[in-house]
Amino acid sequence: xxxxxxxxxxxxxxxxxxxxxxxxxxxxxxxxxxxxxxxxxxxxxxxxxxxxxxxxxxxxxxxxxxxxxxxxxxxxxxxxxxxxxxxxxxxxxxxxxxxxxxxxxxxxxxxxxxxxxxxxxxxxxxxxxxxxxxxxxxxxxxxxxxxxxxxxxxxxxxxxxxxxxxxxxxxxxxxxxxxxxxxxxxxxxxxxxxxxxxxxxxxxxxxxxxxxxxxxxxxxxxxxxxxxxxxxxxxxxxxxxxxxxxxxxxxxxxxxxxxxxxxxxxxxxxxxxxxxxxxxxxxxxxxxxxxxxxxxxxxxxxxxxxxxxxxxx
Length: 313
Hints:
Layout lengths: L7 H13 L9 H13 L9 E7 L6 E7 L5 E7 L13 H11 L2 E5 L11 H15 L1 H4 L1 E11 L1 H16 L6 E5 L11 H6 L7 H11 L24 E9 L3 H13 L4 E10 L10 H19 L1
Helix pairs in contact: 4-6
């Protein structure tokens, strides 16, 4: 365990949540849980102006995959395919709208946020399939989208970060599309392991706890799931060759911390380019709290700086 302390702004959020006395999200019916998260992340977000925001439907199963395009200028720009977090179960385009606006403006790129199918209605691999199909579609339609084919990235937070890592593995294994870089912020890279150090140290008392993570995992998987599958558990990958540049960011006060770092070490030891760091005073979910947590805003700026660097190389 490190000697770092949770950011006071983050601690105030924890205290406010405890004082509200609401039942844990994982005890609610799924629709109520989703409404709770939408209310939490949409109601207090400031408005961030951007040149264009446009909703589209990407061809795919069940009538297509809803997505939202953010464009800060009319130029041909790099593109980030963004996959929102929420345990493959919660959240949507609206909960991450403010974050996508910030990234598009800061990096000066097009962001395409993908509203993939969610669990438990659509279990693995359905959410991942949607993310991969959306990324392949953007690559195939780069001229119409006015994006640079050679500068396409995938990015996500939490379970969306897992999808980003898995899309990169799929794209490598299928030889399409070619990705410039991958950014995964506090990703899930393995099934919940309550004996792992960060689960022992940070498994309760913060924004993500062991019980919530187990609920997410049970919603996403079933008895047929193969934990050796690297598209499900990226830390289980055997071959780390020919992967795009990766940025992996974890939070100190997060049960997922150690598995994210383990993934970064595994890719690096296999010869891949990985930039990784721990946000020492942050908890899981800080990217959605930049309005309330000053240091979370600094972390987002650092991530955007890495995105700009990766696109410029």
